[in-house]
């Protein structure tokens, strides 16, 4: 197996080689860099952030289909992201955080324009994010981010197009294979005093004819307002309405996967539940008020409310959730001062609550069963007998503080922390009937139902100290130490009331290089996780346990180089690589076997699903005439399927996407092709404690033609 440099020496070695190989860079080239606001809550060049950060800009976003955030984030080292259904949903893992989630995003804070999309217990819904209304995406990796309440994996900030930007008015139409359609419209207006109003509408739809039960449709209407007030303050308001429906096709057996590789079609799934889906309606409103208190001090207040409901048939039950409300506020002060130099202070408080009132579970009404009563296949997603009613309240009260010191032009020090108190309260009234995963049928046990309560609270402390040193105008070194704590999800606590919060402690250092015609980032990290929350697949369900400790270490490298820029155009070449070595340092996995629960020692085993090696290659070309092209190929190495490390999946090699475009004046046309060489592969393979494997297929080749007119 390939092994990287000794990790403790790599940063110094690579920095020295770069400086020796390119001595002229320190004097002759102009620095070109992206600006980020996610890591420090203030605008700063990414080279001056003493931690790993990736910025996906508007030019890249325009070249993607953007049905899903995974379209933009693929190829980012240390970030594993896949859409298992081709819709808005995505499974996201950053440096191992998020691995426990079978679907969706957990352990990672996601924000939109500074407003948390992630619930207080770390679960993130992406169905109301308008992916056609994104200006920039920023990713910070690892614990200790002052945005990340109760999340250890870092933060993703989705910045939408500003209401004050009149250059963003457009209509965009798209048609593609698999009966895919896309429409986006934005129109804004401005008053003489500078006040602004913008309307947006987006429609996404695909039938995904290559497999059964995988249609997706989303409609989103948004209104943004911006007011420039007379007292040197600014108020931004937003209201959006979303209706999003997605069918979830499920995984495949090994035999079904082999058939898919031959035909390119998925005819069925490996579960008796053939009608899983998520059908949501969302109302989202938020405001941001900014006021200059003095020449050096700004006050920012964010208020937000998100109300949603969904109908969610899954394994064993149909979830009917009619009334979920999330509301909260951030109060923030930003102060510029001169303690050691051009320094700044950011501090504030967070109050947020998630209320789920009257959530119900039902049995499936229509299904086929065997003579023993085992469910063979659902016939519809209509609800039958009532199983459970539940009320849940999650509350977070927190504070954050970060001091940024710049004693000289070369040195920058960030020191800060988050302190959050999270409480989870749940009341459940259940019937005497429940789905028995082992028997594969609904079982009624008189007296087994009734009323129960769950009341858990966690106090989380997340400090971080980061230092950056500029070697010269192009190169800088950085290092940081940080801690983050991960709260269990409420449904995880249902399966195991004794779950503890996980504590991540990380040390990272690296080098960043920036110039007009190249850039590079390299980082090495060591993370120790105590009480990591581990998902265990058992008889079609997931149960959760704490591992004693987990060791994670890795190397991430990403760079771009402009090969030429002349009368025939501009060509950029890019490459990324991530090495991940994640092992259980102490883990006794409890598995239910014929004789009852049995403990197995997994110490020294690799964590499943995360490959040791992940890399990507890209090329972007632009001609003065307006012709554009972008090619990207991504590779995932092999990985283990389970905690026992009984078997590996080989991953996939060079899955390639292509975008061809032409723009002239306000007009632009583009062709986006996913999986250009029509590879038949799995985006995820899992194995449960009984040995049953499940394959989730990647999409065959699809093409989409888009036209955009800016006005």
TrEMBL record:
Task: Drop me one GO molecular function for this one.
Answer: siderophore uptake transmembrane transporter activity
Family designation? Belongs to the TonB-dependent receptor family.
Q: How does it sit in the membrane?
A: Multi-pass membrane protein
Instruction: Alphabetically list the UniProt keywords.
Output: Cell outer membrane, Ion transport, Iron, Iron transport, Membrane, Receptor, Signal, TonB box, Transmembrane, Transmembrane beta strand, Transport
Annotated ranges, domain TonB-dependent receptor plug: 47-155
Q: Which InterPro entries match?
A: Beta-barrel_TonB (IPR000531), Beta-barrel_TonB_sf (IPR036942), Plug_dom (IPR012910), Plug_dom_sf (IPR037066), TonB-dep_rcpt-like (IPR039426), TonB_box_CS (IPR010916), TonB_rcpt_CS (IPR010917)
N-terminal signal peptide? 1-26
Q: Which domain of life is it from?
A: Bacteria
Q: Where is this motif: TonB C-terminal box?
A: 694-711
Species of provenance: Neptunomonas concharum
- What's in the GO CC field? cell outer membrane
Q: Which Gene3D superfamilies does the entry mention?
A: TonB-dependent receptor, beta-barrel domain, TonB-dependent receptor, plug domain
Primary location class: membrane
**Where is the short sequence motif TonB box located?**
34-40
Start and end residues of each TonB-dependent receptor-like beta-barrel domain: 267-676
Q: What is this protein called?
A: TonB-dependent receptor
Q: Which portions of this protein are annotated as coiled-coil regions?
A: none
Q: Where in the cell is it found?
A: Cell outer membrane
* Pfam name, any one: Plug
């Amino acid at each position: 197996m390939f092994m990287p440099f000794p990790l403790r020496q790599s940063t110094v070695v690579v920095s020295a080689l770069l400086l020796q190989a390119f001595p002229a860079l320190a004097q002759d080239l102009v620095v070109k860099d992206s600006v980020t606001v996610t890591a420090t809550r203030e605008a700063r060049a990414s080279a001056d952030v003493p931690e790993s950060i990736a910025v996906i800009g508007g030019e890249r976003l325009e070249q993607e289909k953007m049905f899903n955030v995974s379209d933009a984030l693929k190829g980012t080292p240390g970030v594993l992201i896949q859409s298992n259904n081709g819709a808005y949903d995505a499974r996201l893992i950053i440096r191992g955080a998020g691995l426990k989630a079978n679907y969706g995003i957990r352990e990672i804070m996601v924000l939109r324009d500074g407003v948390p999309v992630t619930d207080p217990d770390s679960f993130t819904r992406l169905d109301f994010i308008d992916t056609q209304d994104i200006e920039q995406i920023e990713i910070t990796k690892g614990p200790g981010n002052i945005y990340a309440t109760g999340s250890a994996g870092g933060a993703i900030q989705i910045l939408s197009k500003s209401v004050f930007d009149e250059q963003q008015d457009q209509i965009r139409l798209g048609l593609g294979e698999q009966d895919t359609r896309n429409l986006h419209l934005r129109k804004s207006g401005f008053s003489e005093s500078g006040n602004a109003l913008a309307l947006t509408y987006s429609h996404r739809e695909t039938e995904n004819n290559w497999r059964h039960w995988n249609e997706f449709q989303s409609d989103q209407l948004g209104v943004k307002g911006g007011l420039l007030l007379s007292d040197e303050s600014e108020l931004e308001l937003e209201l959006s309405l979303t209706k999003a429906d997605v069918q979830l096709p499920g995984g495949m057996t090994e035999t079904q996967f082999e058939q898919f590789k031959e035909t390119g079609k998925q005819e069925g799934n490996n579960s008796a539940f053939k009608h899983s889906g998520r059908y949501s309606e969302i109302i989202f409103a938020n405001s941001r008020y900014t006021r200059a208190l003095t020449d050096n001090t700004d006050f920012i207040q964010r208020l937000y409310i998100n109300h949603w409901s969904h109908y969610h048939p899954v394994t064993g039950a149909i979830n009917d959730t009619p009334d979920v409300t999330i509301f909260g506020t951030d109060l923030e002060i930003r102060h510029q001062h001169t303690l050691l130099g051009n320094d700044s202070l950011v501090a504030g408080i967070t109050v947020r609550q998630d209320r789920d009132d009257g959530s119900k579970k039902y049995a499936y009404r229509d299904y086929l069963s065997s003579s023993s009563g085992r469910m063979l296949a659902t016939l519809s997603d209509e609800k039958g007998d009532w199983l459970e009613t539940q009320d849940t309240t999650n509350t977070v009260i927190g504070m954050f503080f970060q001091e940024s010191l710049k004693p000289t032009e070369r040195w920058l020090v960030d020191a800060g922390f988050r302190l959050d108190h999270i409480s989870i309260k749940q009341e459940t009234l259940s019937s005497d009937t429940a789905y028995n995963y082992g028997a594969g049928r609904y079982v009624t046990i008189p007296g087994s139902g009734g009323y129960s309560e769950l009341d858990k609270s966690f106090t989380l402390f997340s400090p971080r100290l980061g230092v950056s040193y500029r070697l010269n105008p192009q190169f800088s070194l950085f290092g940081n130490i940080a801690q983050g704590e991960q709260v269990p999800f409420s449904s995880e606590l249902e399966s195991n009331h004794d779950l503890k919060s996980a504590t991540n402690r990380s040390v990272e250092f690296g080098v960043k290089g920036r110039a007009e015609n190249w850039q590079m980032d390299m980082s090495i990290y060591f993370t120790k996780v105590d009480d990591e929350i581990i998902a265990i697949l058992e008889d079609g369900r997931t149960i959760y346990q704490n591992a004693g400790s987990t060791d994670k270490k890795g190397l991430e490298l990403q760079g771009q180089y402009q090969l030429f820029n002349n009368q025939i155009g501009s060509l950029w070449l890019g490459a990324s690589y991530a090495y991940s070595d994640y092992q259980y340092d102490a883990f006794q996995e409890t598995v239910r076997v014929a004789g009852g629960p049995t403990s197995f020692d997994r110490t020294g085993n690799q964590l499943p699903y995360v490959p040791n090696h992940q890399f990507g290659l890209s090329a972007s070309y632009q001609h003065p005439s307006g012709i554009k092209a972008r090619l990207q190929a991504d590779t995932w190495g092999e990985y283990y399927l389970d905690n026992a490390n009984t078997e590996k999946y080989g991953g996939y090699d060079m899955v390639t996407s292509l975008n061809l475009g032409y723009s002239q004046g306000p007009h632009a046309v583009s062709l986006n092709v996913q999986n250009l060489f029509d590879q038949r592969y799995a985006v995820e393979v899992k194995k449960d404690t009984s040995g049953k494997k499940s394959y989730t297929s990647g999409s065959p080749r699809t093409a989409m033609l888009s036209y955009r007119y800016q006005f």
